[in-house]
Amino acid sequence: MNAVYRNTAPPSLPWLNEGFFDFWLTRLNPLWTLRRPLARLVARTAASSDAVTLELQPNRHFGGLQAGQHITLGVEVDGRLLSRSYSPTSLANGHLAVTVKMIPGGKVSQHLGLNAAVGEVFPLGQAFGDMTLPDSVDQRLLLLAAGSGITPMRALLRQLDIAGMPVAVDLVYWARRREELCFVEELQALAARHPSFNLRLALTRDPHAPADRVQDWSFGDIGALSSARVLACGPAGFVAAVQARLQGQVASIQSEAFSLPVLAGLETGNVQVELRSSGRTLTLPRGVPLLEALEAEGVRPASACRMGICNTCVCGKLAGATRSTLTGVHATEPSVPLKLCVNSASTDLILEL
What's the rounded mean pLDDT across residues 78-99? Predict the structure, then answer.
């Protein structure tokens, strides 16, 4: 589905202090700014036993999104602005539905799920991500979701629903228990409307008939698997299992993981990391994502998705070798952009921080 919002920011006004303008304008209306995208919480409903759905009203500076993309929300918790990425669904009224899984001890998810008041306003990032479909779909689809990986699939299915479900679509949705499933009634209604859409709910800890995990799942009843385009979203282990299970058996696999994989051959020991702009030199552990290691030392670079998609945490690397926490591949090239959230230090480094 094409973006439905338009960015109508006013022309540049170099003589005007934007912060001053925003300060007074938001006193008139909390969503009025010169250029900054913001979103206001207008409703919160339970989505499952451990998840809530927030309805957000974006202001006119939000540029819209395609189904399956992510946005970044800035959330103030204990006086500190934190950023997290979510995959929303566009609603007919122009609002965004964001489903948040409440993680024990998670500052942002607990705040959004339990404490955020209707009317609270959040800084809103523009949409990003490639888990999308074209306007015209002509290839059968196999959607695989685990846990909160269902959120981009919901948006994609709404796009397909509006288009009349033009191709055969199968969704297999894994969770541990039924009470942890989100959007079940909506998905079942979609299956009732469209015979070409098949829904399978896989409960791995069902006390009566526990479902197989993806690595042991039988796809024999899917049909024409070799021509299917697979889209998968879930924890890193789930995504890796999808790749291992279906690689070479389907036409293509596109995936996103909302957690980092655990790599074999973890590098140990410490390195010296020079922060060129701030003039500091830190001793950081090898094998730990640089963003996490820097935060442990009180350095807080801008960040959002923490999974290598949004590029918010990119900084320049002037010297040294790093290792991707996604693939294990080492990079030694100097003077290149570096995603701090998905790279660890292998040698001493110089960073533009």
Answer: 93
CA distances from 91 to 34, 39, 85, 154 (A): 25, 14, 18, 12
User: Looking at residue 147, what DSSP letter applies?
Assistant: G
Q: How far apart are CA 19 and CA 168, in angstroms?
A: 50
Determine phi and psi for 198, rounding to 5 degrees.
-115, 125
Q: What is the model's pLDDT at position 262?
A: 73
Express each pLDDT in 61-88 by its tens digit. Answer: 999 999 999 999 999 998 888 888 999 9
In angstroms, the CA 57 to CA 325 distance is 35
Q: Distance of CA 13 to CAs 21, 30, 63, Å? A: 11, 21, 20
Q: Are strands 38-48 and 51-58 parallel, antiparallel or unpaired?
A: antiparallel
Whole-number Å distance between alpha carbons of 338 and 332: 11
| Average pLDDT of the chain to the nearest whole number | 90
**What's the rounded Cα separation, in Å, for the pair 112 and 87?**
15
Residue keyed to tokens 């500190």: 80
Token look-up 């705040």 returns 111
Helix (H) or strand (E) holding 174: strand 169-175
Instruction: Give the distance between the most distant pair of CA atoms in the chain.
Output: 69
- Which residues make beta-bridge pairs with 350? 274, 319
DSSP string across 273-335: EEETTTTEEEEEETTSBHHHHHHHTT-----SSSSSSS-TTEEEEEE--EEETTT--EE--SS
Taking each helix axis from N to C terminus, what angle separates 150-162 and 184-193, rounded to the nearest 10 degrees?
A: 30
